Amino acid sequence: MREWCRLTSPTYSARSASTSPRGPRMVSFGFIPANGGWRHHIEAARFVGLGVKPGVADLILLHSGRFHALELKAHAKSKVSKAQKQFIADVRAAGGHGEIAYGLDHALRVLEGWQLLRGPPFSRGGG
């Protein structure tokens, strides 16, 4: 996950992306929403009043007119909230790509499947 955050950080330039074997492939627009984590109940109520949607995926990407939402979990035992499941279902129902990835390997396979990463197909270890 840290590697993906490094690739998508503002300091990761388009030039380095074009020379990186696993750099992003022409993602037209993407961001990591900052609506997770603990908030004081007053601030949380203010966010709800502003229309902040619970369960929004960790990565939101727009490429070639297609919307992609990827929820990142550390491993297979990580908990997925009801709101996160609903957000992914809503994205799919609207015609977008939505997925929950368990670990970095899975996240990279999903992004490659969506053709958002360049390079050879991702393989884990000897197989």
Structure, briefly:
The chain has 127 residues and is α+β, with helices and mostly antiparallel strands. It contains 5 helices and 4 strands.
Describe the structure.
The chain is built from five helices and four strands. The chain is of the alpha+beta class and 127 residues long. The chain has a four-stranded mixed sheet, sandwiched between helices. A hairpin with a 2-residue loop joins strand 2 and strand 3.
How many helical stretches? 5
Give the CA-CA distance, first to last residue: 22 Å
Number of domains: 1
Quote the beta fraction: 15-25%
Shape: globular
CATH class: Alpha Beta
Q: Using the 3D structure, state the CATH architecture.
A: 3-Layer(aba) Sandwich
Number of strands: 4
What is the topology, as strand order, of the major beta sheet?
A: 1-2-3-4
Q: In this structure, how is the largest beta sheet organized?
A: 4 strands, mixed
In the CATH hierarchy, the third-tier topology is known as Trna Endonuclease, Chain: A, domain 1
Radius of gyration: 16 Å
Instruction: Report the uncertain regions.
Output: 4-19
- State the order of secondary-structure elements, H for helix, E for strand: HHEHEEHEH
Rounded average pLDDT: 78
Oligomer: single chain
The share of residues in helices is 25-40%
**Helix-strand category:** alpha+beta
What would the keywords be for this entry?
four-stranded mixed sheet, 5 helices
Give the topology.
Layout: H1 2-8, H2 14-19, E1 29-31, H3 41-50, E2 59-63, E3 66-73, H4 82-93, E4 97-102, H5 104-113
Parallel strand pairs: 3-4
Antiparallel strand pairs: 1-2, 2-3
